[in-house]
Specification:
Blueprint: H1 4-14, H2 18-38, H3 42-51, H4 67-75, H5 80-88, H6 102-122, H7 134-142, H8 152-162, H9 166-178, H10 181-184, H11 190-198
Helix pairs in contact: 1-3, 2-3, 2-6, 2-9, 3-5, 4-5, 5-6, 6-8, 6-9, 7-9
Length: 199
């Protein structure tokens, strides 16, 4: 089984867009936290999050996205559970890869919400995730023009499939991302954070 370092190298070799890299790192953080919560394999869950969009920059067409990644991962000897979950997070594969297991549901639930949390953080004055409120994320969800690439229906459906309350899900993922804020570029700048604290 390849290591986390192998997975990171594979991801960055195919993904040069920094925002997309950080998205996958965000999903990795959220998935690791959920694995810990559910008593599941943290490395397996984290790797699933880290690799879930590794083919998206080169193959954005949803008829190819995840299927190309599956081929890469099989060739490199990744666990079939990871490959299944990645295929299952693309709804076009629902007939062959329904989200019937916890890993698949976890990935689907963490995918869109991390994007909404990141977008909400980056419009804050201090650009820091520290202290981000669930209510702020929910408010931005209602604004159709905000983070238009984030599918609200998928976001809601993801929490439902994982059988968690949406607010609790948002709070949980905020916490997981806050613990990795530096890596995710969401720690804010020192000057902006100082100014915020002085207000």
């Amino acid at each position: 089984m390849p290591t986390r370092n192998d997975a990171y190298t594979l991801m960055t070799s195919h993904v040069k867009n920094e925002s997309l890299q950080k998205h996958m790192l965000s999903v990795e953080a959220a998935m690791r936290a959920y694995a810990r919560k559910y008593g599941e394999d943290e490395e397996l869950w984290a790797m699933t999050g880290l690799l879930h969009d590794c083919d998206y920059e080169e193959y954005p067409d949803l008829h190819e996205h995840t299927r190309v990644a599956a081929e890469w991962l099989r060739a490199d000897g990744y666990d079939e559970r990871i490959i299944y979950a990645i295929l299952a997070h693309n709804d076009l594969n629902a007939d062959t890869h329904p989200r019937t297991d916890l890993l698949s549901r976890g990935l689907y639930a963490c995918d869109e919400i991390t994007g909404m949390i990141t977008a909400t953080t980056l419009v804050r004055p201090n650009k820091s995730i520290q202290g981000l409120e669930v209510s702020s994320v929910r408010k931005k969800m209602k604004s159709k023009g905000f983070a238009a690439g984030v599918n609200r229906e998928d976001l809601v459906k993801g929490a439902e499939e994982l059988n968690v309350d949406l607010n609790e899900h948002i709070a949980f993922v905020i916490q997981a991302m806050t613990e990795n804020a530096d890596t995710l570029g969401l720690a804010g700048t020192a000057e902006e954070t100082r100014q915020e604290a002085a207000r």
